[in-house]
Amino acid sequence: MIVQIIYKTFTPEIKKIIRRVRRIRSVEEVLFSKGDRNMIVADGLVAWEEGQGDPIEGIYDIKIMKSLLEITPQISG
Question: Which of 29, 52, 59, 73 has a CA 20 to 30 Å removed from the CA of 4?
Answer without folding.
Answer: 73
